[in-house]
Design a protein that fits this description.
magnesium, TIM Barrel, queuosine biosynthesis, 4 iron, 4 sulfur cluster binding, alpha/beta, 22% strand, rSAM_sf
Length: 235
């Protein structure tokens, strides 16, 4: 579905919730609000938000809402948080709507976008965003490399000097693929996050990954929301 069909003054929204804590990556633990947008251009086998795009299992009529950006901004402002995390789905599919939303947000509100790194950021989005958390997908996402890895787009994110590159790893064997990608594409500021949707699995995988991540001088992130609340939505 094209961005033009979404409309610049509307956003296709899955969830708006908070105050909560950022559960992953660069800002882990920070108090924040979440804006989760609908639709995605990928189909990761382990996706933890399939209700934003998988219409074989979920209904877009019940899962998504088409909201005016002023309504979205009002709900975000009512949270009274210092940080807004925009996720998905793939939020970069709705950049025109995001630019419209930004005009209604409090000037001091920090904004982070979580993206799969396949759609390049527009200048007006880059200007307002504090941080991009870019998460290129590995082979275990069960898609072709051509679909999930877009070198020119990843370079565009790196050129903003606002990007952290976060890779989801299921086992230490995935770290070799991450190392190959980051060297080939010269990606900076690498984070590794264990794949897992329950606390026991998450901790087991994080302990297995930690020594090799340390050896490579990368950063390791957990999934704080999973440790706190398990697989519950919108917390």
């Amino acid at each position: 579905m094209s961005e033009r069909r979404f409309g610049a003054q509307k956003l296709i929204v899955s969830e708006i919730f908070g105050p909560t804590f950022q559960g992953e990556g660069y800002s882990l633990g920070r108090r924040c609000g979440f804006l989760r947008l609908g639709h995605c251009n990928l189909a990761c086998s382990w996706c933890d938000t399939p209700y934003t795009w998988d219409w074989h299992r979920f209904s877009p009529e019940s899962e998504l809402s088409r909201l005016d950006v002023t309504e979205v901004a009002a709900r975000i402002e009512n949270m009274a948080v210092p940080l807004l995390v925009i996720s998905g789905g793939e939020p970069m599919l709705q950049q025109a709507g995001l630019v419209s939303l930004f005009a209604h947000l409090p000037p001091g509100l920090a904004v982070e976008i979580e993206t799969n790194g396949t759609v390049a950021p527009e200048p007006a989005v880059t200007e307002r965003v504090s941080r991009f958390t870019v998460s290129p997908k590995l082979t275990h996402a069960a898609m072709s490399r051509q679909r999930r890895i877009r070198p020119a787009v990843l370079h565009a994110f790196a050129a903003t000097d606002k990007a952290t590159f976060k890779f989801v790893a299921a086992s230490p064997y995935d770290l070799d693929e991450i190392e190959t990608l980051t060297r080939e594409l010269d990606l900076p500021d690498v984070y590794v996050m264990p794949e897992g949707r329950d606390p026991d699995q998450l901790m087991e995988r994080m302990r297995a990954l930690a020594p090799a991540v340390q050896e490579r001088s990368w950063s390791l992130t957990t999934r704080l929301h999973v440790l706190l609340w398990g697989d519950r939505r919108a917390v």
